Records
---
Amino acid sequence: MAVPRKIAYLLLFLIALAAFGTLGYMILLNLSFLDGLYMTIITISTVGYTEVAEMTKAAQIFSIVLIITSVGTVGFVISRIGYFFKEGHLYEVWRKSKMEKDIQALDRHYIICGSGETGKYIMNAFKNRAEKFVVIDKDPETIEELKEMGYNYIMGDATHEDVLQHAGIDKAAGLVASLSKDADNVFVVLTARQMNAQLNIVARAIEPNAHTKLKRAGADHTVSPNEIGGRKMAAMLLKPSITYFMDSIIHTEDITLDLEEIQVSPQSTLCKKPLKEARISSKTGLIVLAIRKDKDERFRFNPGAEEMLDPNDKLIVIGQHEQIETLRDLAKEPPYE
């Protein structure tokens, strides 16, 4: 039985006991409601204040029955309510209720299906970038870990439509299918794509032939952690300096650089200007690595100074978080009147 329901039953019992006593005194002693309630409270609490009317034999017997009935039960009820407070059950109910409200309020967020080893890295990356996300997992031990980390979570099977609906898939910006079996990931991708045709879906592929199945199911991108890990291990042996450089410059104690994609808004002051006039590097300190023109699959690496910035162009830049936010503002900034 849920804790709120237990407390409700206990409180209802106290109310019923008070109502029984009040009604009894009103009938036996011909009292008003307030006097009857007063007699009930002083009898149940055994404080021994003066009665408001002369006690009859029937009223005395009724008081004895009421005292015998209430002394043990009232003490039990109070002790149970105190136990709920002491053990933090009420706080847990409040915390879960708040989390449910937070999940319902999410918009343009990300859904992580599966919080295994791969899922943990995804969560850390989202947390570091202050992205909104909710995690779906059905393992009780994993749920406890998510609870301790303070993440929004849903305990359930990510292959079920109602669970994805609970996670706000209709308002989500993207979904990661990171379950431990390819078949489950295929089912999640298929279900998610049917529920939100615009969703950006990235799926984990375990077996070599899983990439094709996941793409057919509706995944926009597929990733094999084993394949990526193998490539990096080979690179660390064959090109150790380059690998060390990439790792150290992206993750150092003194500075953290991010690769980011920024879209140029048609209303931005950057729009319809060549790179040399946009002066992105001097304004933000960022390095523009590539430009991806609207509706073009290819990237234009190391763009020249004369490269024109058109509406909805995507800039691939590298720099610190604060610098990226500055460019993000510039890319959305309307021209001065």
---
Amino acid sequence: MSVKRRDLIRYLEQNGFFLKREGKRHTFYAHEDGRATAVKRHNILDRISANEVLKDAKLLPIF
């Protein structure tokens, strides 16, 4: 199963994350309490990678 990047970003933003900066290969999101994560610049991510991003952000994996 694959996950669209925009769905992953939407979930992060609904949980209080905001765009911190754009990198060359990743987009970095941060939270007010200091949590941060990086999202790859692929339109479609595999389910495992999407859940790893959420785990890095200390959120429940939903994909």
